[in-house]
Each structure stands twice: as structure tokens, then as C-alpha cells.
Amino acid sequence: MATTSARLLQLAIPLVKTHGFTREALSRSVLSLPTPHAQPLPDAAITSLFGQGDNARKSLIDTWLEDAREQMKATQSTVVKDVLWARLQHNEPVLNYLPDAFAVLASSSTFLPLDPEPAITHAAKVANEACWIAYPTEKSWHTRRASIAAIYLASELHQLTSPSTTYQFLSSLIETSSAAETSLTEAQIFGSYVFKSWAGIVKSTGVFL
């Protein structure tokens, strides 16, 4: 992606709090340039820079998610629960927009009406970053990654429906029955259940009606 496009995507990140993951947020990003434009970008320019329809929104969503993972590195603690909680806190200002954002990602496949890959990839990348932070010297931390990804995705799902109890929910998953040490098979079963619930929230946005 051209440097100009990448810069505008970065400038659009703070605008997500007020405008959501929208083409409007991208349009208004030029107002935050060191030398601001007099007017937001016209829709034709958004299409030229970022693609048609939801392709532009997907670029913004992906950039926001990447930035959120980058912010995890600033977490003071190296305890995995604290690292995951810091990532979940990053969701709070845009929480109302996340179901729609996930729906956009899930509908990006040309073959599946509801593509599970974006949810799996999202959780795996968060887990990967958390493991690098929490277990920097352990050679076997990759064995924890599947269970941490499942725990994170379950906690994010819970956050979408009950934000005020998210920390307690995250803590219970990690602490109960050595959740962070669960086997790969258990993580896969748990992850399958979580994805079905996540898919239900995505469908509730109305995108697939």
C-alpha cells in the first residue's frame, strides 16, 4: 500500500472512536494531516486509495487491530492475564463498533458466507504477541498459544455482551482448572464452541440476513 494510504490509515485510527470503522473515518483522516485538507476526502478518492465498499473498511479494521497488538508491548506486567487484559481494555472505546467490524471481516470470503479464518487469525495473533511478552525465554511457549488464543477469543466475546464482568471472566478462564495449560485438543474443542458463539454475535449485526 502506498505511503500516503498507510499514513491516512494511521490518522484514521483515533477517529474510529467517534466514526467507527467506516469510510467516513478514512475520509476525515486528511483533516488530521500536519497541513489539513479543507474538506474530507470524497468517496471516489477513498475508493481509489483503499478499494470499493467494505474493502476500504477492512483496511481500516486490519490497521486498527495491528495497532492494538502493537500497544500490547507497552504493558508493564509480563503476566499473561495482565497482557490479555490490557489488550481487551484497548477495545473499550470502540466496543460498540466491534461486532460490525468482525462482521465485515467474516464476510470477506468469496467462498463462505461466514468465514471463520479472520476470527482464528485475530485470536492467534493476539496470543502470539502475549506469549512473546509473557514467556520471552521459554522455548516451548508455542504449546500454550492455542489455549491462550481460545481464552482471549472467549473473553472478547464476553466483553461484547457483558463488558463490566470481562476481567472476572478472563481471570476465571485462566485460573480455573489450569486453563492456560489446557491441552491442544481441549483448546480446539473450546475454540470451536467460542467461534460458534462469536459467529452468532456477528450474524446479529444483520449483515447475513
From TrEMBL:
<protein>
    <recommendedName>
        <fullName>COQ9 C-terminal domain-containing protein</fullName>
    </recommendedName>
</protein>
<dbReference type="Pfam" id="PF08511">
    <property type="entry name" value="COQ9"/>
</dbReference>
<dbReference type="InterPro" id="IPR013718">
    <property type="entry name" value="COQ9_C"/>
</dbReference>
<feature type="domain" description="COQ9 C-terminal">
    <location>
        <begin position="138"/>
        <end position="176"/>
    </location>
</feature>
